[in-house]
Design brief:
With 168 residues, the protein is mainly α. The chain is built from eight helices and two strands; from the N terminus they run ββαααααααα. β1 and β2 form a beta hairpin. α3 runs antiparallel to α4.
């Protein structure tokens, strides 16, 4: 644990944890390949949808590092704080999102929690109704990539809170 202990509203916070290992340093070619894959997956995908997908998958995977990064990126790109906050409870807050965004969020959940079964036909068909085949392929790639990033960050305990928007 580091000794970096700040206060918020006058209350002492827990000390910041340290990462388990610097995976990008020890596997630089894997990191570079992931970055290239991430860039390729975003091509042709609406940037707003891409950030919503990254945030929702990161919420489901409990990836604090990626939540820190992608909420800051989304805010810097003009996303509203309200839509970011409501994303955790999107089923109760559908009126904040377009039908296309909801289809992307539902597909994100189905792919992210795939160990619970499979991607249901209804979820896939709803996404296919809102995205053409090329865009749907990019969306599936983006969801897959953020899930991989989440797994790297969670397993190596990357530390949230230090990211500046546009840094990656």
């Amino acid at each position: 644990m580091t000794t970096n202990q700040s206060t918020h509203d006058g209350k002492d916070l827990h000390p910041e944890h340290t990462p388990r290992l610097a995976w990008a340093k020890h596997a630089p070619e894997v990191y570079k390949a992931m970055a290239r894959l991430d860039q390729a997956a975003r091509q042709g995908l609406d940037p707003v949808v891409a950030e919503l997908v990254k945030i929702r998958a990161s919420q489901l995977n409990h990836c604090a590092f990626c939540l820190d990064m992608h909420t800051k990126d989304a805010l810097a790109a003009g996303e509203s704080l309200e839509r970011i906050i409501q994303l955790a409870a999107w089923e109760e807050s559908k009126h904040f999102y377009t039908a296309k965004e909801i289809a992307a969020i539902e597909l994100t959940e189905a792919i992210t929690v795939i160990t619970e079964g499979f991607v249901p036909d209804a979820v896939y068909e709803k996404a296919a109704a809102h995205f053409d085949e090329a865009e749907l392929t990019q969306l599936i790639a983006a969801i897959t990539v953020i899930n991989a990033w989440n797994r790297f960050a969670v397993s190596t305990r990357m530390v949230p809170g230090h990211y500046t928007a546009g840094q990656h």
